[in-house]
């Protein structure tokens, strides 16, 4: 008489378990990396207030899924058309005009895909210090007609005021005071003369897509001494 042996259920169900593990692995979201490790984000400078990135994505390429842990502003340098894939949300198609500026609340992960034949270029300014109480500016929206240009106050977010300045050759932004520091983002190539009260004149030259940090306390006028129209975005801190 043959000896009966108990069935080894572990081996009987192992293919099913393997299939289940593989199926669940396929449904898991892709791993995310920090924004500083994403190869299309190039850190330009950082201080106690901001972390500023130059972002460049070649045509028909995609970013690695990365985290945005802070609120941030971004300005488009040139027109673009992308697919924005935020983790946990359906894909969204976005078209940007040259020089547009936006505010994005942080704490999410996403990737962007460049759908156009041009390089997708933006300057992204992360806010490391924010004023959630919304500092009260004397003006948070408006348009000023200048001598040879315009100054548009776009909006205020997290206490930071975003403005857009356009100056024709020879155009002047009249004397004004910056109580707090600000970030300047060059939408076009800039060749400007800044006449600072008590310090004299200095020349500022930036390429489109460059950014600069300006310390608090300056009172100055700004003149476009270049041969082409100048356009910039300023993010002013209180």
Name a few traits of the molecule:
1 helix, Jelly Rolls, eight-stranded antiparallel β-sheet, 238 residues, five-stranded mixed β-sheet, mainly beta, 2 domains
Description:
The protein is mostly beta strands and 238 residues long. The chain folds into 2 domains: 33-127, Jelly Rolls (Sandwich), CATH 2.60.120; 142-236, Jelly Rolls. Helix content is 8%, strand content 53%. The protein contains 1 helix and 18 strands. Strands 11, 12, 13, 14, 15, 16, 17 and 18 form an 8-stranded antiparallel sheet that branches. A 5-stranded mixed sheet has the order 1-4-9-6-7, with no helix packed on it. β2 and β3 (50-57) form a beta hairpin. The longest helix is centred in the N-terminal third of the chain and has 19 residues, at 9-27. It is globular and about 55 Å long. Residues 9-13 and 20-25 have low confidence and may be disordered.
Strand content: over 45%
Helix content: under 10%
What is the CATH class of the largest domain? Mainly Beta
Mean pLDDT: 90
Number of strands: 18
Individual helix count: 1
Task: Write the CATH architecture name of the largest domain.
Answer: Sandwich
Global structural class: mainly beta
Q: Profile the largest sheet.
A: 8 strands, antiparallel
The number of distinct structural domains comes to 2
* Large-scale geometry: globular
- Taking the alpha carbons of the first and last residues, their distance comes to 93 Å
Q: What is the CATH topology classification name of the largest domain?
A: Jelly Rolls
Strand-and-helix sequence, N→C?
Answer: HEEEEEEEEEEEEEEEEEE
CATH H-tier superfamily of the largest domain: Jelly Rolls
Query: Which regions have little confidence, pLDDT < 50, spanning 5+ residues?
Result: 9-13, 20-25
Radius of gyration: 25 Å
């Amino acid at each position: 008489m043959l000896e009966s042996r108990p069935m080894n259920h572990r081996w009987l169900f192992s293919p099913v378990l393997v299939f289940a593990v593989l199926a669940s692995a396929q449904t898991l979201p892709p791993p995310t990396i920090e924004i500083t490790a994403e190869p299309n984000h190039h850190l330009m400078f950082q201080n106690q207030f901001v972390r500023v990135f130059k972002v460049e994505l070649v045509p028909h390429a995609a970013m690695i899924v990365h985290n945005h842990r802070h609120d941030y502003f971004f300005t488009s340098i040139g027109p673009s058309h992308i697919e924005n894939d935020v983790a946990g949300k359906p894909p969204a198609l976005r078209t940007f005009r040259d020089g547009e500026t936006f505010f994005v609340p942080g704490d999410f992960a996403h990737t962007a895909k460049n759908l156009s034949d041009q390089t997708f270029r933006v300057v992204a300014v992360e806010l490391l210090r924010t004023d959630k109480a919304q500092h009260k500016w004397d003006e948070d929206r408006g348009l000023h007609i200048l001598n040879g240009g315009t100054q548009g106050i776009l909006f205020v977010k997290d206490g930071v005021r975003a403005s857009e300045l356009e100056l024709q050759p020879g155009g002047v932004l009249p004397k004004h005071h910056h109580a707090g520091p600000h970030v300047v983002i060059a939408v076009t190539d800039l060749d400007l003369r800044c006449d600072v009260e008590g310090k004299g004149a200095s020349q500022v030259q930036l390429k489109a897509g460059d950014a600069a940090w300006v310390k608090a306390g300056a009172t100055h006028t700004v003149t476009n001494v270049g041969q082409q129209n100048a356009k910039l975005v300023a993010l002013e801190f209180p």
